[in-house]
Amino acid sequence: MKKTVRVTKLLFTTPPLRQVFNEQVWEIVARVPKGKVVTYGQIAAMIPRPRGVGVKHFRAARARWVGGAMASCPSNLPWHRVINVQGKISVRSNNKHHLLQRQRLEDEGILFGAGGRIDLHVNRWRPRK
DNA sequence: GAGATGACGTCCA
DNA sequence: ATGGACGCCATCT
Q1: Strand C: positions under 7 A of a protein C-beta atom
Q2: A102 touches strand B (CB under 7 A)
Q3: What tens digit of pLDDT does each residue of A65-102 get?
Q4: Which domains does chain A show, CATH number per domain?
């Protein structure tokens, strides 16, 4: 039997002040230059831990919180430059956006390898600080 | 009000 | 390199 039930239960949490957290995420997304990509965890690591959230929980959940923020990302931001740590595009049930995301990245000169993976060593955005 | 449904990453065998 | 376990639920139908 799989224990995914309990894991799933713990997996999907939301930050205390969702809107505030989301805005912090979007602010970072807005800074990603054309032709570069960032991962969910990378963005998460740039955001300070909110008061009242345990260290352990924050570390475990923050990457997914970023995903949650991206689900309602303003369309004027370069949302397509956010991918997962595998170098792949994270799919929602809506694979239409998946195709659009790949198209936009290719238009910026980003190459996709076998299995639809992007080489993060080459394309990862490394902010000054 | 109940049920389905979520843009992930790290650590350890 | 690869696979599995684990990590404080809220929101929309």
Answers
A1: 5-11
A2: no
A3: 999 999 999 989 999 999 999 999 998 766 678 889 99
A4: 18-123 (1.10.10.10)
